[in-house]
């Protein structure tokens, strides 16, 4: 199962993508498996050399016991130190941001998040990408 952040590709140009592990509680993993995640407005920030994802909403698991999780809490992302240093130096440049792109499970059933280092698009760039997408859709219709 794979959950994608579709609005991120509309809002940003992405230079690099990284696969990061996430520190989660058991009920969060079960909620992600059910697809109860909203990360359209989520973003990543650095705090004391560690990367956290903010404003990602994982709904409470309906069949959870007394150990429930907070839906909008910060969640730590796990990357190698070399990757963290590289990302932190890029973030200090103007206009760069780290955005969650998708959440998926590996073969070993470990939850991972793909994050992207991107720059924001201008309004005219967004219009151009919409026009390009519409032309490609029309070509595919014509070919069929």
What would a concise description of this structure say?
This protein has 144 residues and is of the alpha+beta class. Helices cover 32% and strands 36% of the residues.
> What does the average pLDDT come to?
85
Quickly count the helices.
4
* Gross geometry: globular
Beta-strand share of residues: 35-45%
Largest sheet: 7 strands, antiparallel
Question: How far apart lie the N and C ends?
Answer: 29 Å
Descriptors:
alpha+beta, globular, 144 residues
Please provide a written account of the structure:
This protein is an alpha+beta fold and 144 residues long. The protein has a 7-stranded antiparallel sheet. The chain has a two-stranded antiparallel sheet with strand order 3-6. The longest helix has 21 residues. It is globular and about 55 Å long. The mean pLDDT is 85.
Give the topology.
Layout (H helix, E strand, L loop, with lengths): L1 E3 L1 H6 E11 L3 H8 L3 E2 L4 E5 L2 E5 L2 E2 L16 E4 L2 H11 L4 E10 L5 E10 L2 H21 L1
């Amino acid at each position: 199962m794979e959950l994608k952040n579709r609005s991120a590709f509309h809002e940003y140009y992405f230079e690099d993508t990284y696969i990061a592990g996430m520190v989660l509680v058991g009920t969060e993993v079960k909620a992600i498996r059910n697809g109860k995640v909203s990360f359209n407005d989520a973003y990543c920030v650095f705090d004391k050399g560690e990367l956290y994802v903010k404003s990602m909403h994982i709904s409470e698991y309906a069949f959870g016991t007394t150990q429930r999780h907070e839906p909008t809490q910060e969640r730590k992302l796990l990357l190698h130190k070399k990757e963290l240093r590289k990302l932190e130096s890029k973030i200090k440049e103007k206009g760069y941001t780290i955005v969650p792109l998708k959440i998926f499970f590996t073969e070993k059933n470990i939850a991972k998040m793909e994050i992207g280092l991107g720059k924001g698009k201008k309004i005219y760039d967004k219009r151009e990408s919409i026009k390009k997408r519409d032309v490609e859709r029309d070509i595919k219709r014509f070919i069929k």
